[in-house]
Specification:
Shape: globular
Helix content: 10-25%
Distance between the termini: 22 Å
CATH topology: Rossmann fold
Number of strands: 9
Largest sheet: 5 strands, mixed
Radius of gyration: 18 Å
Strand content: 15-25%
CATH architecture: 3-Layer(aba) Sandwich
């Protein structure tokens, strides 16, 4: 069984319309990317045990659109209803994903603090972040670096602390992988004869790169 978590950027900047793709918003492009991924994955025989989760940059509990109890139909419905209106709180959003997965592992008995982990209950997780790579913003400041609030209690912005969270010092695990799809789409037609005739902007480093 594989848990595939999509973390979709729902900050206000995702409302920008791209010059390519019929002037769709970046959020529309993100939704289509997730939908295509799921459809392609379902064609594989390895996908039979997959479970999908959908989280956003909203504050808890509104950030969890489809958890581990929802089916794929609910997942797709919630995906289509996403709206962009908040801040680019990538650090806390990623921490919420890690916490949600850890709670699931605690409830299913894969991780037992004080007793160790049970590798034979392997439930690998794949986290796919879809973002426009904009500046990291909070209600009080603009951040240059990606900072995960690794504290214990209350680290999910309202959810009680994850049991044993004070014993976890790093978010990295051998059984989970983080990938990022950074949307680099210009909002205006390219200048004649300039680089980027495709309608995309030049690639640059995003704060999520180092975490991946």
């Amino acid at each position: 069984m594989t848990i595939i978590v999509f973390l979709v950027d729902t900050s206000a900047s995702m409302n920008q319309r791209a010059y390519v793709n019929g002037r769709k918003t970046l959020l529309d492009v993100a939704k289509e990317a997730v939908e295509v991924f799921v459809k392609q994955r379902q064609k594989s025989t390895e996908s039979r045990g997959d479970r999908y989760m959908l989280l956003t940059f909203d504050e808890f509990p509104r950030n969890i659109k489809a958890g581990w109890k929802e089916n794929l139909t609910t997942f797709m419905a919630e995906l289509k209803n996403l709206e962009a209106s908040g801040m680019t709180t990538l650090g806390s959003a990623l921490k919420a994903v890690f916490d949600t997965l850890n709670i699931n592992r605690m409830q299913s008995g894969i991780d037992m603090y004080g007793q160790g982990r049970y590798p034979y209950y392997l439930e690998p997780a794949v986290i796919v972040v879809v973002t426009d790579g904009g500046k990291l913003t909070t209600a009080s400041t603009v951040q240059r670096d990606l900072i995960l609030p690794m504290g214990g209690a209350g680290s999910m912005g309202g959810m009680a602390g994850v049991p044993g969270a004070e014993l976890t010092r790093e978010p990295f695990r051998w059984d989970q992988r983080l990938y990022a799809l950074v949307l680099r789409m210009a909002g205006h037609p390219p200048m004649s004869g300039s680089a980027g005739e495709s309608g995309h902007v030049a690639s640059d480093s995003s704060p999520v790169d180092a975490m991946c």
